[in-house]
């Protein structure tokens, strides 16, 4: 484990919630947060029972609140209740406010946008649900979704959920090989995709990638293709590929949602861990939906008629919980953004903020421009105090709350965060736990809990909450091993953190071999496995290198079989190999061709030393286990060239 004791941050800058942040607040004071938080920990059964009744619409209300434990890896919430998540996110709002805008879509070009009302969204989802049922998709089946950020991606997710199918969204930045692995792992018989995606002016050939991915996967029976760009050269394979607009629009707009048990799986989402291939993190229906919905409401202090823009892609957990499930369960208007923050220029987000208000329809009078912002969020990687301050001053203009939200694919929703309306914030701190979350800092070696303030340790959570992942799809043993075995009785996050003198949490980053590039989670093992397929590579080690823009970047050290081959070509081939196996999101930024790697006497690669070399450190710590100390100098010379 890569844990080094760091200093606990000392920070005198504290921002009290602004007037704006208190607008229509669900909590009136910081004390009220503390009181509710204490209740949620002292008596979780009563707390969650009340929240679940208030927040969700049930077909059959639950009697039992929770059961199971981390030790037995058998956690259940609301296990005798029945509900449908699509009904909760769509129908109940469409019935009440049919014309309210559900999705404000902003395409890649600034001229492309659409507004879709709750009723329109419901009709579209029902048509797709009817179509999926007509081709035999049923409760418990997995459906792969490989799409751009277009409204049909949201329809696809919710249509699956409506009929009880489990969706597996695969981010469009993954390659055909990565997509194939995920389709095979979940045995998806249906893939929903688009002809092409366009991002930052660049075309992503989604349908072609799907074709390559499933070339030899015989159990995929249907590929449903949305026409996004209308590219005429798209090949449709007879008896397998169908156009969405041809098949779906003719279906009935009425469909009765399937009543699901609380613990039936809602979706799986693949994510990287420290070992092996990506795992299908599985979430259950009621617990996940409740937690996503509540965190959305409290953390961002959602008020009716707010437009909520979360710029994450639905291919990631942030897109699941805070583009789709959390906001829609609350009946909010979401922004679906199908571009990049830098296209056509770096002001794109702020253009969208202004435009979403004006274009979303008459329901949203032009009261504000950028000043409409009330709450700013940050997620996915530690935000340094300077970046925090810039965001707070320049975008929030010192009037908005800034919430640094910490969580993971596995936690389903935000677990450590300020509540925007009440929590005093410090630049760079994720602050305090959300309701029901009991964080603990553990000594990495003994596993003992470290009490008191002004301490650091590995971050764990002490007791189950509703949206914790229930299993690794198809591999429950791996679930137990990954999260509950190293520190028995705790959920282990894989991150380290500090708790400062006020009890505020500061997340430090991963202590395992997971790299975080622009919030994209990748494992060194996965990239190293990809490199083994490059025939010239004898051995490789991958590390995350600190990067000003992306937080970390991928750095490859490779020993060539034949050191005399063209080095520049070898470097390009190495980069290509990773892009082919995983996708463009895993493109290495630096490649070093080295004569050897630092290893222990027993042959384990000491990545810790490689990390120190690339960050220019000269203190290498304890080197007694290193088999050949001269390697450090050799690599140092190559890196500094
Ligand atoms: C990191 C993304 C610091 C962390 C929601 C975690 C963060 C991993 C923060 C999960 C934050 C997420 N501050 N680090 N506010 N939020 N992380 O599964 O290392 O894609 O373990 O979920 O991102 O990444 P994932």
From TrEMBL:
Please give the GO cellular component terms listed in this UniProt entry. cytosol
Top-level taxon of the source organism = Eukaryota
| Molecular function in Gene Ontology | acetate-CoA ligase activity; AMP binding; ATP binding
As recorded in UniProt, its EC number(s) are: 6.2.1.1
GO BP annotations, alphabetical order: acetyl-CoA biosynthetic process from acetate
Q: According to its UniProt record, which protein family does this protein belong to?
A: Belongs to the ATP-dependent AMP-binding enzyme family.
From the Swiss-Prot or TrEMBL record, give the protein name: Acetyl-coenzyme A synthetase
Query: Which organism encodes this protein?
Result: Rozella allomycis (strain CSF55)
